[in-house]
Amino acid sequence: AAAEKGGFPSFMEKEIHDQPMAVEQTLLGRLDEKGNLTLDELKIDESLLRSVDKIIVIACGTASYAGQVARYAIEHWCRIPTEVELAHEFRYRDPIVDERTLVVAISQSGETMDTLMAVRHAQEQGAKVVAICNTNGSTIPREADAVLYTHAGPEIAVASTKAFLAQITAAYLLGLYLAQLRGNKFKDEIGTILAELEAMPAKIQTVIDNEDQVKELARAMKDEGSVLFLGRHVGYPVALEGALKLKEIAYIHAEGFAAGELKHGPIALIDEGQPVFVIVPSPRGRDSLHAKVVSNIQEVRARGAVTIVIAEEGDESVSDYANHVFRVPAAPALLQPLLATVPLQIFACELAGAKGYDVDQPRNLAKSVTVE
Ligand code: AGP
């Protein structure tokens, strides 16, 4: 087993380090010689894909956060209304689904019973289902109408890491493919966006190369009882993922919030010493989004929070309000989750290790949840 871990103390740590490769492999072979995006395995009639008028992403846990990230990109690029729903909630609602609905089921294992049941439920109502899956020949891709495999390689640790980044990458490819097919205004930008995606593995590696700073803080924070995570836009699901990682493997109470929601309640939780992670969007992204998040850092800091900020290299606007800053390379706003998630994974993994827990096999959890 030691060899399988590639010299790392745990599968989780190895899989965090596999992430540049996971994203690279998922992007591999998706361009034809004319520079067009080809998703050969997506065997759904093109005219059908052109007629799609709604997308519903169904998934559980980390995979659902990948779906939440992807929603921002898909709606922006494709102008198709996109919902993301937990599979077990979707299944027992009375969702409005028909032949023009494209359901995207995201699952690392392809065996999650909740997601499988939701796939069947959608198909019964005439929807076509595309699975985004990491496990060849597993049940969900077998039952789906088409599959887009993530090529992250086997993920052994219970806490999902590289699958998450690969799921975002694959869902982005699907979004770009739909934009290309439907010939909308983003058609001409697809090449540029793909080039930006292809630059991500090296940037992810840069984040990993700076892991010592994150690890040091994680060890120092091992006795914390509660940690909060704030993000906005694509940073919001990243905050949810950061909190889930900490709950799962370090058994610390953690919550992720949409930063804009702070003033509607959660800010009451902030008092002296409360650690708060804040994911700061790119200063070059959506107007005013960056400034709003910076003022959120200021607000929690003024109430005594210890702020741990994830921000782009060179973004000095956060320096006055951050107790700790983890830097990520500059990237387009929609691609930032592929970077900003990484320090949160490293933080949870190192902190859980410092507490003496088995990070690969957390209590009460199974790698794939095959019961409803
Ligand atoms: C992630 O760290 C979790 N262990 C869990 O939320 C997981 O993502 C979820 O159960 C979905 O699994 P799947 O991707 O295999 O369907």
Automatic annotation (TrEMBL):
Keyword Zinc assigned to the entry: answer is no
Q: Which UniProt keywords apply?
A: Aminotransferase, Cytoplasm, Glutamine amidotransferase, Repeat, Transferase
**Catalytic class of the enzyme:** transferase
- Domain of life assignment: Bacteria
What is the purpose of this protein? Answer: Catalyzes the first step in hexosamine metabolism, converting fructose-6P into glucosamine-6P using glutamine as a nitrogen source.
Compartment(s) where it occurs, according to its Swiss-Prot or TrEMBL record:
Cytoplasm
Q: Does the keyword GTP-binding apply?
A: no
> What GO cellular component entries does it have?
cytosol
Q: How does it assemble?
A: Homodimer.
Q: What is the name of the protein in this document?
A: Glutamine--fructose-6-phosphate aminotransferase [isomerizing]
Start and end residues of each SIS domain: 44-184, 217-362
Supply one GO molecular-function term. Answer: carbohydrate derivative binding
User: Which first-to-last residue range defines the signal peptide?
Assistant: none
Catalyzes what? D-fructose 6-phosphate + L-glutamine = D-glucosamine 6-phosphate + L-glutamate
Enzyme Commission no:
2.6.1.16
Q: Which GO terms describe its biological process?
A: carbohydrate metabolic process; fructose 6-phosphate metabolic process; protein N-linked glycosylation; UDP-N-acetylglucosamine metabolic process
Enumerate the active-site residues: 367
Q: What is its main location?
A: cytoplasm
Q: Which gene encodes it?
A: glmS
